[in-house]
């Protein structure tokens, strides 16, 4: 029996990609929006991976993204002061664009109504991630937020999943974890002993020989977990 359900945050409960796209396009309104958003997403992925590997600080990975983008856009080499000034504007736009996916709140409410314990496991800066949960209005529903910056491990390492289970008072075999990344989220959780659930919003056909449960909307989660 599942007693606890843990969620990824960005891309699962919060539309991070949409918020980041609106923010970066707003900062460079004269650039092609589709190309700009795609390149920003690539730079973000690369920089965050280095942050999670311990190669960069949280501030450092942010600076790397805009310094790299500015150079590619022909805007020259930016120093830290100019990068930080740009980032202040970007972060303000990004935070203003935070929105939950429409299927998030109903799924959380349906699971909470069953008495399941709920929480979040997220790779990122704890302060920023908790602020997201609060701004989305989910703080009461998701009282436990385990972030890699505090846990000493990042998904897909087993340690962060086990730490979250301990925080919720649930054994791994009695916990499910839902995330939008197959390897980092669903398979990582399954390796740690949880029930891994892949939230695949892409609409693409599922890969063959999938070894974890797959849903295309959080609306399907309550039925998947039974009860």
Note down, in words, how this protein is organized.
With 227 residues, this protein is α/β, with parallel strands linked by helices. It has ten helices and six strands. The chain has helices at 16-27, 33-52, 58-72, 80-96, 104-113, 126-135, 148-151, 158-168, 182-191, 221-225, and strands at residues 4-7, 117-122, 144-147, 175-179, 195-199, 213-215. The chain has a six-stranded parallel β-sheet with strand order 3-2-1-4-5-6, sandwiched between helices. Helix 6 links the parallel strand 2 (117-122) and strand 3. Helix 2 (33-52) packs antiparallel against helix 3 (58-72) and helix 3 crosses helix 4 (80-96). The relative contact order is 0.16.
Radius of gyration: 18 Å
Looking at how many chains there are and whether they match, the oligomeric state comes to: single chain
Strand order of the largest sheet: 3-2-1-4-5-6
On the 0 to 100 scale, the average pLDDT is 96
Residue windows where pLDDT falls under 50 for at least 5 positions: none
Helix content: 40-55%
Q: Strand-and-helix sequence, N→C?
A: EHHHHHEHEHHEHEEH
Specify the number of helices.
Answer: 10
Distance between the termini: 9 Å
Biggest β-sheet strands, sense, barrel = 6 strands, parallel
């Amino acid at each position: 029996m599942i007693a606890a359900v843990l969620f990824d945050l960005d891309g699962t409960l919060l539309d991070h990609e949409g918020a980041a796209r609106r923010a970066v396009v707003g900062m460079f309104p004269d650039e092609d929006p589709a190309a700009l958003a795609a390149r920003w997403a690539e730079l973000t992925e690369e920089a965050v991976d280095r942050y999670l590997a311990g190669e960069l600080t949280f501030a450092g990975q942010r600076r790397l993204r805009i310094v790299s983008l500015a150079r590619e856009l022909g805007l020259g080499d930016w120093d830290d002061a100019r990068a930080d000034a740009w980032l202040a504007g970007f972060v303000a736009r990004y935070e203003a664009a935070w929105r939950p996916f429409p299927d998030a709140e109903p799924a959380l409410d349906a699971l909470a109504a069953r008495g399941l314990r709920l929480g979040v496991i997220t790779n990122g800066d704890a302060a920023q991630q908790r602020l997201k949960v609060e701004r989305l209005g989910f703080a009461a529903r998701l009282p436990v937020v385990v972030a890699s910056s505090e846990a000493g491990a990042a998904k897909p390492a087993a340690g962060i999943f086990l730490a979250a289970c301990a925080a919720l008072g649930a054994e791994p075999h009695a916990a499910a974890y839902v995330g939008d990344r197959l390897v980092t989220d669903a398979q990582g959780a399954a390796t740690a002993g949880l029930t891994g659930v892949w939230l695949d919003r892409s609409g693409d056909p599922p890969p063959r020989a999938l070894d974890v449960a797959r849903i295309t909307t959080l609306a399907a989660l309550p039925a998947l977990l039974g009860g």
